[in-house]
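Summary: Need help interpreting a holo structure output

Steps to reproduce:
1. Submit the protein chain below together with the SMILES for flavin-adenine dinucleotide.
2. Request a joint structure prediction with the ligand placed.
3. Inspect the structure token block that comes back.

Expected: a single structure record containing both the chain and the bound molecule.
Actual: see attached output.

Input attached:
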Amino acid sequence: MKTEIVVVGGGPAGMMAAGTAAQNGAEVLLLEKNEQLGKKLLITGKGRCNLTNDCSIERMIENFPETGSFLYSALYTFPNHQLRNFFAELGVPTKVERGDRVFPESDSARDVVDALKGYLKDKGVEIRLKTAVNEILVEEGAVKGVMDRDGNSYLADKVVFTPGGASYPTTGSSGDGYEMLETVGHRIKSIKPSLVPLQAKEGWVASLEGLTLKNVEAGLYLNEEEIDSEFGELLFTDDGVSGPIVLTLSRDVVSRLGEGSLKLKIDLKPALDEQTLDNRLQRDFEKYSRKQFKNSLGDLLPSKLIPVIVDLVSIPADKKVNQITVEERRELMQLVKELEVTIIGTKGLRQAIVTKGGVMIDEIDPQTMESKLVSDLYLAGEVIDIDAYTGGFNLQAAFSTGYLAGINVVD
Ligand SMILES: Cc1cc2nc3c(=O)[nH]c(=O)nc-3n(C[C@H](O)[C@H](O)[C@H](O)COP(=O)(O)OP(=O)(O)OC[C@H]3O[C@@H](n4cnc5c(N)ncnc54)[C@H](O)[C@@H]3O)c2cc1C
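--- attached output ---
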């Protein structure tokens, strides 16, 4: 008789686990509480789906700063190039972009989801949508199946549990997995938002809402000591900052909040050293020598940013450019090199790209993804205490752990 497997959660981890188990001969039922599969996957990478990263496995593991070593087996068993081949064979070839980020050639997350759906159909996985599981059934230390909210039970030889984390709950991953796992004896490392927009003290950020700065460098300072820095794109929001470099830095912010004063110092012109920037300012000031200061920065800065900079610097806005002193020009140069934003907090889980925390990794066998506490129960994806920086690592981890569970549930 075929091994009967129930998979809970139709995200990348669950779909990969279900398809892999079915491909290896199991009879698989996939339960998903939403009306569709892969709701979060559809919005990944701003709808383009940064599905993995084209770096070495070692570098990938480094991108999971705290629990990366747990992923050795999963990432070596189903590495990034295999994931790319997998999607290419399903008709979704991929390409590599800046920072070794891998996207579908079509730039469409929808293609990734459709390919996975086609894969599940092809392998004969039975899918039941609008089915919210709310209990893991365990007898004498072994899983027997799961029960949904309406009291229907789904008995199985083995269960793969992939309900995701608690971030972006509107996509379905609302953290309900944690309680169910605690009920069967697992410990959950405290849940926090990670890869999340930051909130700033300075009120002026609101006037910049929607402004994206490309090719800037942001240093993260704790008590005036630089602890990290990132180069790339930054976005201003209604009460702070976001965008790729901020999301990456936010991981450190989440773990250091409360330890002292946290600041971002944004270098608006990282390609210009101080002398070159000063020369550039002198040229601009010569060109606009008869204008007022507030009308002289159009060649250097985006127009939305000019009133903020003019406000922050001590040069009067209506001062004639040809009367600006060397000291004043130096002050302006410093501001352009180090625009300070004081961090007072982060946005919550609702706006976090990933969840930090989850099922303790020492309670899961990293070679198989089987629970060490409940036999025949397998865990994969973001429900586990694994989270990485941006760059495609989080999805690779979901696919790799899902795959590892998928091959190990089949006897
Ligand atoms: C806006 C955004 C953009 C992102 N972009 C990227 C990116 O480009 N690259 C990257 O690597 N990562 C990205 N991520 C992170 C990535 O999407 C997640 O890490 C990944 O989806 C986790 O996969 P998962 O299968 O573990 O969980 P999920 O994708 O969250 O899937 C879990 C599934 O389980 C279902 N479920 C939950 N509870 C139950 C229940 N009780 N019963 C039945 N079903 C249930 C949910 O409805 C959901 O469908 C992004 C995240 C967000 C929010």
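--- end attachment ---

Reviewer comment: Residues 64 and 153 are 36 Å apart (CA to CA). The domain at 4-193+355-408 is CATH 3.50.50.60 (FAD/NAD(P)-binding domain).
Status: needs-info
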